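Look at one record.

>
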Amino acid sequence: MKPIPPKPQNPDNKSKFRFLPIVLSFIFIIWIIIHANLGLKNPFIQFVHQIPGGDKIGHVCVFAGLTFLLNHALSYTSFKLFKLDLWTGSMLILCFALAEEFTQLFFATRTFDLLDILSDLVGISLASALAYLRFFSSSK
């Protein structure tokens, strides 16, 4: 696999706001997590539970979105781990996903589920793969 080249920096005014979407998304996700941890009713959680497989679809979509937004905000910076180039944003989202899933073990209102972790991984991998393909297809 080819190494991930650094994404060119764009010094225009938009770069000042590149973290805004990920910050707002994290605020929204934290709000949902707090409601779930406290066992409070949340319209988004209720909506997702009405859809067959909605919980897993939600995990894939949320973590794909967070991964895309954070990688974009970090300008697709990467680091090497055992000869693999890994995007920093993807790995930070993976850490967040694992921490959030494992903290569910400490809340009576939550249920730890390995399929949730798998769904998170699918979302993170999907966003990373699509960004990788898009990045290289646009550089040719």
Remarks:
- The chain has five helices and two strands.
